[in-house]
Specification:
This protein is α+β, with helices and mostly antiparallel strands and 316 residues long. Helix content is 38%, strand content 21%. The chain is built from ten helices and ten strands. Strands 7-6-5-8-9-10 form a six-stranded mixed sheet. Helix 3 runs antiparallel to helix 4 and helix 6 packs parallel to helix 8.
Length: 316
């Protein structure tokens, strides 16, 4: 049974271990600092560390899965880089060695250097037209030693007038399909990002009660992927051609209003596909500030859907 009505909370609200607070400037802060403090590393003796290639015991495997589960909760709740670390740890369990336990503890050290806070600033000017805000998605993929790549994407509502970027969705996971090249992994990641972004754009369209659909800008750092979608080039992998056709169809129909290529060093989704502390900190800074500098889009290449060129040209 549900009681319908208005609930007035105090200054602090705790939901699923997430502390929610709103300051006098109407900015909303989500924090999991208390929960992150409870995550402890895996206990490994000095003698055990010297046995790097030794197989782990069932108890050690259980300890790794517990740490992975805690980072997974933290990563999907507040801290996107923690979601990547959790995904990588789960992929180690097939052939778990002592060196993986040491790497897991090192991942935790890197995560503890970040601030588990999401900030949602109150835009100075409330948007009234669709051209004043749009859904901005960053997509990336990495091709590791296995045939399965890693998908990473992060989406948020971007207000170009005040450079405000509200992160609302992200994911880092092992790809379900085999890819034998880096561009193949990028294509699979872009397709998943486009599908998820289309769903978010549809939901935000109803939330904002706008008359026109919310523009969706998809950002990638693979120039080969950018050229494949915006031209008639075909992928060498026949199995990926239906996926490319689906991406082109989404682009031509306006579900993806703009496709833009950005340098890899500026793609914040890189922190969801590779272990890089500098990129972790870069993404974490964007999340804690709730802002995205215009410098991220310097030197980019853009392709705007013909049906929406007049509406989205200035937004990018």
């Amino acid at each position: 049974r549900f009681k319908v009505g208005r609930f007035i909370f105090g200054k602090n609200l705790v939901f699923n271990r997430i502390h929610i607070h709103q300051d006098v400037n109407r900015s909303v802060f989500l924090s999991m600092e208390e929960y992150m403090a409870t995550i402890m590393p895996i206990e490994i003796t000095r003698d055990r560390r010297k046995m790097q290639d030794a197989k782990c015991t069932e108890q050690e495997k259980k300890s790794l899965l517990e740490l992975s589960g805690k980072l997974n909760w933290l990563g999907h709740g507040i801290l996107p880089p923690a979601a990547y670390c959790s995904s990588i740890m789960q992929q180690w369990t097939g052939d778990l060695r002592v060196k993986h336990l040491c790497d897991a503890n090192n991942c935790l050290k890197e995560i503890r250097k970040l601030k588990p806070v999401l900030r949602y600033n109150s835009p100075s000017n409330v948007p009234t037209a669709k051209t004043e805000y749009f859904l901005l998605t960053f997509s990336d993929a990495s091709q590791g030693r296995s045939s399965y790549g890693q998908t990473g994407y992060i989406s948020g509502v971007y207000f170009p007038n005040c450079l405000t970027y509200h992160v609302i969705d992200w994911n880092s996971s092992k790809q379900a399909r085999v890819s034998f090249s880096s561009i193949g992994a990028e294509i699979l990641a872009a397709a998943e990002s486009a599908d998820r972004g289309g769903l978010l754009a549809h939901g935000l369209h109803g939330l904002y009660q706008s008359e026109t659909p919310l523009p969706h800008v998809l950002t990638v750092d693979s120039h080969g992927l950018y050229s494949t979608i915006t031209t008639l080039h075909e992928s060498r992998d026949y199995r990926l051609r239906p996926t490319v056709c689906r991406l082109r169809d989404s682009f031509e129909c306006g579900e993806i209003s703009t496709l833009q290529w950005i340098k890899g060093s500026r793609n914040i989704a890189d922190a969801l596909t590779k272990r890089n502390l500098a990129m972790f900190q870069n993404l974490n800074e964007i999340c804690t500030l709730g802002a995205l500098s215009q410098s991220f889009f310097n030197g980019t290449e853009r392709k705007i859907a013909k049906e929406h060129s007049e509406d989205t040209s200035h937004a990018v």
